[in-house]
Amino acid sequence: MNETNITIIIDEEENENNKNEEENIQENTQLQQQIIEDNNTKINKNDKKYFWKNRRNNPLITVWRPINEWANRGRETIARLAVITQGTKNWSKPRLPKVSRRAENQIRNFGPLLLLLSLFVYLILGASAFLFFEHTNHEIMREIVNLLSLYEQQLELKMPDLNEWTLENSLTYCWGLITTIGHGHRSPKTGGGQVFALLYCVLGVPFFVFTLIVISYRLLNLCRVLSQLVTKNTCDRELERIVFNKIEPLGRY
Q: Are 122 and 204 in contact (CB under 8 A)?
């Protein structure tokens, strides 16, 4: 029994010694960490002091300085724009230049006329282009027809009439293209004329529709003004008739 007690006591002492050693190791590690942190803070402070003392020679400061100047200029321009655009609620909408009433009325009055004039010019340009593409081909066909006309007289045959590409026929063809009415039997035979007809139609149809919308809008405004004048005159006459009917009995007395 004595031996067992002695072994137990020895084990307890060893455990206590181990615990004390572990505690000492933890305390030493904590002290080392604190010393390292203190040294790092001192180094950081020294680095900051050195950074600000030698900021003129530091490349980061030399890069940051123009960026800061640009930022200040941007703030100044934004402040100026804010002063200029005071009173505007929506920043996304740009401020359009003010147009005088007289200029606005002139645009409204002469806008449809300019559209019609430009449409007429567009038709003339198209007609001249079709003449350029198709007139030479038509001249060749005419020579062939003249050569074959001798056989008409001998055989008593009638050759089909060829549609000449004159200015009038070219204008009617262009009008049929842009209005989508149709151009009848006349059509370009050359490759250049066919390609030009396609491009002319692609550009001309939206242009014609736009001019038609503008002119119809102006006509609607004219009809509205006329209807207001007519209704005003009729209302005035009805008021006169009502007032006269009420005043006439009083005049008898």
A: yes
Q: Tell me how far apart the alpha carbons of residues 130 and 174 are, in angstroms, rounded to a whole number.
A: 9
**pLDDT tens digits, 17-53:** 777 777 777 777 777 777 777 666 655 555 555 555 5
* pLDDT tens-digit readout, 41-51: 655 555 555 55
Could you tell me if 176 and 182 are in contact, meaning their C-beta atoms sit under 8 angstroms apart?
yes
135: how many CB neighbours lie within 10 A of its CB?
13
Ranges 64-68, 193-197, 240-244, most confident: 193-197
Class of domain 113-243: mainly alpha
**Is 160 strand, coil or helix?**
coil
Supply 137's token pair. 């081909």
The sign of the torsion formed by the CA atoms of 231, 234, 236, 242 equals negative
Residue 182, classed as helix, strand or coil, is: coil
Please state, in angstroms and rounded to a whole number, the distance separating the CA atoms of residues 45 and 204: 77
What CA–CA distance (Å, rounded) separates 174 from 166?
12
Residue 159 pLDDT greater than 60, yes or no:
no
SS3 state at 238? helix
CA pair distance 121, 127, nearest whole angstrom = 10
Q: Which residue type does 106 have?
A: Q
Query: What is the rounded distance in angstroms from the CA atom of residue 45 to the CA atom of residue 39?
Result: 10
Query: What's the rounded Cα separation, in Å, for the pair 92 and 170?
Result: 49
